[in-house]
Structure formats: structure tokens, C-alpha cells
Amino acid sequence: MLFLSNADVERLLSMKECIEVQEKAFKALETGGAIHRPRIDLYAPSNTQTDGYYRWGTMEGWYDGIFATRMKSDVNTWPKAGNGIATEEKYCIQPGTFCGLIMLFSSDNGEPLAMMNDGILQHMRVGAGAGIGVKYLSRQNSSTVGMLGSGGMAETFLGAYCEVRPIKKVKVFSPTKANREKFAKRMSERHNIEVVPVDTAREAVRGVDILSTNTDSMVPTFEPEWLEPGMHVSMLGPCEVSPAAEKRFDVCIRQGVGGLKLPETERIKMEIGMSPLAYIGGTKEEMRRLPPKTTGSGFGGDYPDFCDLVYGRAKGRTRDDQISFYHNMGNQGLQFASVAGLVYRKAKGEQGIRSIPTEWFVQDIRD
Questions:
Q1: How far apart are CA 79 and CA 263, in angstroms?
Q2: pLDDT class for 318, splitting at 50, 70, 90?
Q3: What burial class does residue 306 get, using C-beta atoms within 10 Å of its C-beta: 0-12 exposed, 13-18 middle, 19+ buried?
Q4: Distances (CA, A) of 326 to 158, 250, 276, 323, 350
Q5: Can you tell me the distance from the alpha carbon of 365 to that of 59, in angstroms, rounded to the nearest whole number?
Q6: Secondary structure (H, E, C), the chain
Q7: Measuring CA to CA, which residue among 129, 42, 73, 105 is closest to residue 330?
Q8: Strand-pair partners of 277
Q9: Which residues have a Cβ under 8 Å from the Cβ of 263 and sit 6 or more positions away?
Q10: Taking the CB of the first residue and of the last residue of the chain, which one, N or C, has fewer CB atoms within 10 A?
Q11: Do the bridges between strand 53-63 and strand 34-45 make them parallel or antiparallel, or are there none, so unpaired?
């Protein structure tokens, strides 16, 4: 059984491959050649973080003979900045460290195949998903991007755009000036394009072909009236795009099924903050720490999905002046199965990859 670090994944996985394998896996949903289970979270009150909650999340998928489960263990808080806008912050053990793991199993004989850190692969799979949306829905000559956010996700989103469109110029805004300036310098050097930090979100959005919002904001990040004819819009989080902005989209495609739909109770809640479905422990007083229900586009609207688009049941962009939107959520478990499966197969032939005894994970007692 292999153990792959973030450094291993970064060395083995290219954005081109990440986009290609996800496209194939998404298309395979149509014929049963792939399947996934949406993300489910469990919340328990944290005794050390009295304004936060512990959250355990999992999502699963199967593709090309490999089953994957991705799990993450976080303590979450939802602080408000000076402008009153809340974000979701998280850590494991202490601020700055995180716990996210992917486990792979063979669907032929059930064998545990690999365990890997999820950090690099998580960023890559989400960015590649956004790249698929740009490939299918943006104007083919799209060359300018307005980025809202300058973190790791913004980097992979931009990398995916550069893979599928002739990107020449990027404007980036995030609230911290130093962060957007560092992002601009890194991305300009990495992609050999012009990347300009700007002072407002409005300036980042004005006049671009692709609007990419990549933040952990709990509220929408742009105004509906900022949208211009011909734009394509891509998002990271469920709160970034307002219902009013959605009404301005001419073409809406969602990646896939975003979350299970269950009757809500005091302990089962839909679309709480960044959670599509949450099982919640704690007292009523402790539960007041949790964020409110999602107010943005959520975890997948009532519009066609990627398979509807590629198999002709739904139309994509038909005119250059249309505003298109790709809801970049919904196939998370399948993304981990397809991308992590690709990384695992490449790693098998590599020297220096760490391994763990498979017998540690199997037993002779029937469960």
C-alpha cells in the first residue's frame, strides 16, 4: 500500500492530466462507468474553540476500478472581518495545520491501494473542474480574467484557465494588498502572462472575459450589475454568487449532483455554511455558533448538469453575448476517485515512493 505526500502528488500530476481524467470520469456517469456519493458532514462542539465547531466530512466515488474516500478533520470558525463579512476558517491541532486524507481501494478485490495527503490534489481537482466549465461554456477567444481571491485555489483555477484558453491578462483583487501583489508576481512568472493587482473587486471584474471568484466568503463577492455581455462566471464556494446574479445568467450548467436531500430536523440541516448536508451534535446554545443557511447559489441549482450538456440534452453557449455560469460543485467524490486514481497508477512505477504494509489494514476476523 502506497503513501503519497503532497510533494509526490505535485510532482506526478499536471493540470492537463487533471482536466482530462475528470472529463472522462464525468462523462462515464451517463453509462454507469462511474458513480459518486455527495459530501456529508458531521458537526460536534469543540471544547477548546468555544466560538467554533469540530467538523468531519467525507465524500466517495468510483471510477476505472478504483474506489476513493476523502475525509477531512477540521475545527471551524466563522469570524467577521472589519467590514462585517464572515469567512470560514479552519485548522487541525493548531492554526496553519490541516488534516485531509484520501484512501484508495481496488473494486476488483477490495484491496487497500494507497493513502495520500489531499492538499495539492484538492486544489488541483477543484481548479480543473472550473477549467472544464471554461472549456465548454466561455467564448473560445476568452483571454482576460478577473480573479476575486488570491489563495491556493485561485492559483489552480488560473492554471486551468491557461490550459484551456489563450489567457493573456489577469486582474486580481483580494482584501489584503500584500497577498494580491504576491499572487500577481507568482502567477505572472509561472504562466508568462500579465497579472495586475487591483484595489477593488469592481475593478477586477470590469471588462474581463472570465470572472473567477475564489474565496472563503460567506456572502456574495460581486454585484449582479457588474456582469457584462459575453462573460463566463466560475465559482469556488456556495456563497459567492447571489440569487440576483443567477437571474442574469443566460446559460447555467452545474457540474453534478451537489448534495443529498433529506427532511430537515434539529439535528439534520441542509446547506449550513459550506456544508451541503450536516448532522449536528451539541446543545441548542452550542449550535448557535454555526453559520446561517447558505444565501448564495448553494450546492447546485435546478439547472442541467455536465452530462446533460455533453450528451445534447441541454444547450451551452450559442451566442457570444450570452453570460454563462458553471456551478463548480457536485462530483467531489468522483473527482477524488479519478484524479487520485491517476496519481496512484503513475506512482506505482516511481522510485522512492513510501509504502505501508497492506497487512496493517486487513484482518482475519469477519466484520
A1: 29
A2: very high
A3: buried
A4: 15, 11, 18, 10, 36
A5: 27
A6: CEEECHHHHHHHCCHHHHHHHHHHHHHHHHHCCEEEEEEEEEEEECCCCCCCEEEEEEEEEEECCEEEEEEEEEEEECCECCCCCEECEEEECECCCCEEEEEEEECCCCCEEEEEECHHHHHHHHHHHHHHHHHHHCCCCCCEEEEECCCHHHHHHHHHHHHHCCCCEEEEECCCHHHHHHHHHHHHHHHCCEEEECCCHHHHHCCCCEEEECCCECCCCCCHHHCCCCCEEEECCCCCCCHHHHCCCCEEEECCCCCCCCCCCCCEEEEECCEEEEEECCCHHHHCCCCCECCCCCCCCCCCEHHHHHCCCCCCCCCCCCCEEEECCCCHHHHHHHHHHHHHHHHCCCCCCEECCHHHHCCCCCC
A7: 129
A8: 270
A9: none
A10: C
A11: antiparallel
- Residue 84 corresponds to which cell in the numbers above? 462585517
The residue type of 150 is S
pLDDT per residue over 171-205, tens digit each? 999 999 999 999 999 999 999 999 999 999 999 99
pLDDT at residue 258, as a whole number: 67
Q: Which residue shows C-alpha cell 485555489?
A: 153
Q: Report the C-alpha gap between 136 and 3 in whole angstroms.
A: 35
Q: Exposed/middle/buried for 25, CB within 10 Å: 0-12, 13-18, 19+?
A: buried
What digits encode the pLDDT tens for the residues 167-180? Answer: 999 999 999 999 99
Q: How far apart are the first and last CA of the chain?
A: 21
Which grid coordinates are listed for 177?
A: 494588498
**Which band of pLDDT confidence, cut at 50, 70 and 90, is reported for residue 349?**
confident
In degrees, rounded to 5, the angle at the alpha carbon of residue 104 between the alpha carbons of residues 102 and 108 is 165
- Look at residues 300, 278, 298, 299 and name the one whose alpha carbon lies nearest to residue 290: 278
Report the greatest alpha carbon distance in the chain.
64
List, for residues 241-271, the tens digit of each pLDDT value: 999 999 999 999 999 876 677 889 999 998 8
Instruction: State the Cα–Cα distance between residues 299 and 301, nearest whole angstrom.
Output: 7
